[in-house]
Write a structure and sequence with these properties.
The protein has about 35 residues and is mostly helical. The chain has one domain (about 1-30). It has one helix spanning about 1-30. It is elongated, with a radius of gyration of 14 Å. This is IS982 family transposase.
Length: about 35
């Protein structure tokens, strides 16, 4: 079970760094439009 929690934490940490960068790249390339709140 510890390995599962460790893997989950690693994936969570990665996603917190990856997805904002990925969204920024897509916005810069014009592939997606910014969502308005």
């Amino acid at each position: 079970m510890n390995k599962l929690v460790e893997t989950y934490c690693d994936v969570d940490d990665f996603s917190k760094l990856f997805f904002p960068s990925w969204q920024r790249i897509l916005l810069e390339n014009g592939e997606i439009k910014r969502r308005r709140a």
